[in-house]
Amino acid sequence: MRYSLPSRDLIADSMESVVKGMSYDGFIAIVGCDKNMPGAVMAMLRVNRPSIMIYGGTIAAGYHNGKKLDVVSAFE
Q: Do residues 61 and 68 touch, judged by C-beta distance below 8 A?
């Protein structure tokens, strides 16, 4: 993708504008790729409000106590 860094800054500016413009008390960002994730983190640092970032994209499953974790194990 061309203009990767400017697009990241544009994402951060847009998120910051909404959070500050609407006077939100907190910030929840659902991200899903390598472009909007850093933009969301930058916006969270700028607004200095309680924030949570949830990754909604694909990611490799992990392990806990030698057992492979997946979506099904979250509901067990």
A: yes
Strand partners, 13: none
What phi-psi label fits residue 65: left (phi over 0), alpha (psi between -120 and 50 degrees) or beta?
Answer: left
Closest C-alpha among 17, 20, 3, 12 to residue 53 = 12
From first to last of the 76 residues of the chain, give the pLDDT tens digit. 678 888 899 999 999 999 999 999 999 999 988 788 999 999 999 999 999 999 887 767 778 888 888 777 767 6
In the block, tokens 């959070």 appear at 19
Angle of helix 4-21 relative to helix 36-47, nearest 10 degrees, comes to 40
Parallel, antiparallel, or unpaired for β 67-68 and 63-64? Answer: antiparallel
